[in-house]
Structure formats: C-alpha cells, structure tokens
C-alpha cells in the first residue's frame, strides 16, 4: 500500500495526469485512506487533477482528520480563483460547504474565491460555519469584508431579474 501511496502522491505533485489515469484505470481507489489524494491536489491548486479524480469516483465531500474539505483546501491554495477552473467543484457543494469555503476565503483573504463562492447564490451566510462557529456575516465584518458579501448578493439578485422587470413593471402591467 505504501508503494501505491507514494506513486499516487508523486503523480499528483508532479502533475502527471497520464500516469495518474493509468493508476486509476488499473483500479486505484481515489478515496484511499479517507480521500487524501483529492485534498492533496486541491491544496496545491491542481484543479485539473481534482476534476480527474472526481471523474474517477473521488468524493470531494470527504473531510480530513483535521476537518478540512476539498473546497477549503482549494480556496487555501489561492490558485485559479480569477477563472472558472473551480466551478465544477463549487457546483458539487451544498450551502454549508460553500459557507465553510467562504470562511477560509475570508480568513486567508482570498477575495477572488470569496466572490466566486458568493456568486453561486447558494452560500448560506446566516449559519455558523464549522470552521469558526461564526456566521459569514460576522466573520466578514471582523475582517472588514462585509461589502463583498453584500455586493455579491446584489449581483446575484441582478442576474435573476429579467430585462423587462423594473419597480414600475408588475406582472399585471406587463400582461396588458
């Protein structure tokens, strides 16, 4: 088992997707020992390897012994959050997982990740996060980032409004 552990770790850290696919095709379990391979890739910002591992059955929701999730480690890495490269991971997370990821973004001042998470429109800012026990609103206020939570919420709401809506246009007026 140590040999496989070393091989998978080497493939991940060297970004060797070809050998990683070969190992996965030969039956390597991507959820080995609690799913550390996907978290290792996320911690190093290796979005394409995280995506590959998910395609081969890795569970992005498994938590490390220290309580870290794949999303939290991807946010901590700080890599590629100004792009859409982590959207596949965000789409697999529920509101509380997004909140925990946003908490990491606030604590480590990863503004791009915080904005991406908030733009999903699914992040619950009113529940205590498992990381801190505080709500995102409380945490953001402490780090003086509450304006990002507010502006992301407004942007999310703007995206939900049709081009025909305005305060003066009600559904009844539009039907006439």
Automatic annotation (TrEMBL):
<dbReference type="Pfam" id="PF00023">
    <property type="entry name" value="Ank"/>
</dbReference>
<dbReference type="InterPro" id="IPR036770">
    <property type="entry name" value="Ankyrin_rpt-contain_sf"/>
</dbReference>
<protein>
    <submittedName>
        <fullName>Uncharacterized protein</fullName>
    </submittedName>
</protein>
<feature type="repeat" description="ANK">
    <location>
        <begin position="33"/>
        <end position="65"/>
    </location>
</feature>
<keyword id="KW-0040">ANK repeat</keyword>
<dbReference type="InterPro" id="IPR002110">
    <property type="entry name" value="Ankyrin_rpt"/>
</dbReference>
């Amino acid at each position: 088992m140590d040999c496989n552990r070393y091989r998978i770790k080497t493939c991940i850290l060297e970004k060797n997707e070809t050998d990683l696919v070969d190992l996965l095709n030969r039956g390597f379990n991507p959820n080995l020992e609690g799913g550390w391979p996907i978290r290792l890739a996320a911690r190093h910002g290796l979005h394409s390897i995280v995506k590959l591992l998910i395609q081969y059955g890795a569970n992005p929701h498994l938590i490390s012994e220290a309580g870290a999730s794949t999303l939290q480690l991807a946010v901590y890495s700080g890599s590629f959050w100004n792009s859409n490269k982590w959207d596949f991971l965000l789409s697999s997370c529920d509101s509380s997982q997004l909140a925990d990821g946003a908490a990491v973004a606030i604590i480590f001042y990863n503004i791009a990740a915080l904005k991406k998470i908030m733009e999903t429109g699914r992040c619950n800012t009113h529940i205590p996060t498992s990381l801190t026990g505080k709500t995102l609103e409380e945490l953001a206020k402490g780090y003086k980032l509450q304006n990002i939570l507010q502006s992301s919420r407004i942007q999310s709401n703007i995206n939900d409004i049709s081009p025909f809506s305005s305060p003066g246009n009600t559904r009844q007026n539009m039907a006439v």
